[in-house]
Amino acid sequence: MRRNIVLIGMMGAGKTAIGGELARRLRRPFSDTDAEIERAAAMTIPEIFARDGEEFFRARESEVLGRVLASGPGVVSTGGGAWLRPENRARIGEDGVSVWLDCDLETLWHRVRHRPTRPLLQTPDPRGTLERLLDERSPVYALADIRVPAQRGDSIEQTADRVLDAIRAHDPAILEGK
Ligand SMILES: Nc1ncnc2c1ncn2[C@@H]1O[C@H](COP(=O)(O)OP(=O)(O)OP(=O)(O)O)[C@@H](O)[C@H]1O
Ligand SMILES: O=C(O)C1=C[C@@H](O)[C@@H](O)[C@H](O)C1
Ligand SMILES: [Mg+2]
């Protein structure tokens, strides 16, 4: 049963912000896998990357994702890399509808450039890194059930409206089911 609404996409696309808005509107529990990992580890994501490495983080991410999907129906915001692992995509497909918040490079860069909270962007050329990640990942994000454009001109409320319209068009039962 496709119970959960699962937001995927690049860092800065708005998964956390839009996910919280959707959960409030639908009165469903909201989970953010990055926040759950930080809470369980009592460390920030940059600290986990620095101490234990990306592979360790990815393993925790898959565990947390499985746990929050099983506890649905809810709204789940994933970390930007979660959808890239085939096992995570399969798990999301079993228990949720995947929604790609598709955001352009300029908007992403505008949102993430002043934040030191994304370890993958701690490179000599963070904008170039962001662009490369966007190019590499977009074909994989495109495997999501639903794509919603999420550009800078749109408010969080407008993008949340678009997500709900797109889910309704895809399968209205997702919004009705408890
Ligand atoms: N229209 C908008 N849609 C989404 N986010 C917006 C919008 N306008 C401003 N923002 C801000 O942009 C930032 C979006 O980042 P957010 O943390 O939601 O992205 P994310 O996809 O969860 O990234 P990550 O993968 O790093 O967790 C937030 O600070 C949010 O408040
Ligand atoms: O895009 C990514 O790979 C990441 C995005 C963030 O949400 C965090 O999950 C972490 O910084 C990695
Ligand atoms: Mg987030």
Automatic annotation (TrEMBL):
Keyword flag Metal-binding: yes
UniProt cofactor note: Binds 1 Mg(2+) ion per subunit.
Catalytic EC class: transferase
Residues that hold Mg(2+) according to the record: 16
InterPro entries: P-loop_NTPase (IPR027417), Shikimate/glucono_kinase (IPR031322), Shikimate_kinase/TSH1 (IPR000623)
Binding of ATP, residues: 12-17, 118
Residues involved in substrate binding: 34, 58, 80, 137
BP GO terms, sorted: amino acid biosynthetic process; aromatic amino acid family biosynthetic process; chorismate biosynthetic process
Pfam family, one: SKI
EC number(s) given by UniProt: 2.7.1.71
NCBIfam families on file: PRK13946.1
Functional note: Catalyzes the specific phosphorylation of the 3-hydroxyl group of shikimic acid using ATP as a cosubstrate.
Subunit structure and binding partners: Monomer.
HAMAP family associated with the record: Shikimate_kinase (MF_00109)
Record-stated family: Belongs to the shikimate kinase family.
Protein name from the UniProt record: Shikimate kinase
Organism annotation: Paracoccus denitrificans (strain Pd 1222)
Gene name as annotated: aroK
